[in-house]
Amino acid sequence: MSTTEIVAASAEALATLKLRTEGSNEEQKQADAEPYRYAHLLPHFSQDHYPPLTPYEHVDPGHRALDHPNPRAFLDNASSVVELTPYLGTEVHGINLAELTNDDRDELALEVARRGLVVFRDQQDFIDRGPEFYREWGSHFGRLHIHPTSGHPQNYPEIHLVYRDGNTSFNFEINDSITSTVWHSDVSYELQPPGLTTFFLLAQPTTGGDTLFTSQVSNLKKLSPQFVAFLRTLKAVHSGVEQADFSRAGKRGGIVRREPVENIHPVVRKHPVTGEEALYVNRQFTRRIVGLKKEESETLLKFLYDHIDKSGDNQARVKWTPNTVVLWDNRVTAHSAIVDYGESKERRHGARITPQAERPVPASADLDLNA
Ligand SMILES: [Fe+2]
């Protein structure tokens, strides 16, 4: 090819590329101009103020499934059931969650308790049934938690939303940090933190925004028996104060609708249905170990957080394809968002249904949480 031909070919390639770019820009503009399918579920920051939560008696639906002849019968018609890792996470295709019977839902609760995390693909029916259905769905598994600071669809405070789009200018969580990874168990500062939790995306970036999960059962099992025996004797303070302060500083929606609380939970908790023991501290909400000197508490928590951070062998990662619904058991897992899509300006809009569970049960019957 002569120099002239190369120049001509390059010019042609450039012109084609320009046309393609203009085409995709045009497509993007068109997509932007279309009304947003889930506009009725956009975040609303009501000025309501809520009284403190009151205790309630939680009956775990997973208990009922223990009596079923086959507690995994709800998966019989699945086209595929694949374990994501040996000890954490299962991915299911071919089941319509919206059509599960109450017995099926009980089995689902048990399965999520056992696997920590279950990912259901192709759930457009579930997602499109809307907020009344979300409330009915979640109420099967426990009393629905209303988040003290987050946005929710108007008139549906029980639906916790995460939201970000091209107009979102803040990046407070990650601007001052080398990573957006913050392992946590949702609202662990509550006296009765959530159990079986449902989360799905209504809109998502083309790539990025995956969610990380870790098994706190596996994290605990990696530790030596002597060390675990010591951890079973400990309890820790979990605090919602910093999350409220973050909102009061004008970040996110800037709303605190219920005064923040601190509660004491066992460092090792026992799942009420499976009996499995799980580590129950997290960097986001756990503040100190009760009864230890400051340096002891900080050193011990730092060791446990580092262990959780770096143990890839106990983790799974969910990539959000459209119409995916994920369920996790907040008692035996921790998770972290990944905010790696900030430059894309694409919308990420998620909804969480968060039933509360029992007050965490200490692994050791000798541990008195009220002392
Ligand atoms: Fe979370």
Automatic annotation (TrEMBL):
Q: Locate the region Disordered.
A: 344-371
Keyword set includes Metal-binding: yes
Domain TauD/TfdA-like span(s) in chain numbering: 82-354
Coiled-coil ranges from the UniProt annotation:
none
The answer to whether keyword Ribonucleoprotein applies is no
Entry keyword set = Dioxygenase, Iron, Metal-binding, Oxidoreductase
- InterPro entries cross-referenced by the UniProt entry: AtsK-like, TauD-like_sf, TauD/TfdA-like
Q: What does the sequence similarity comment in the record state about its family?
A: Belongs to the TfdA dioxygenase family.
Protein name (database record)? TauD/TfdA-like domain-containing protein
Species the sequence originates in: Hohenbuehelia grisea
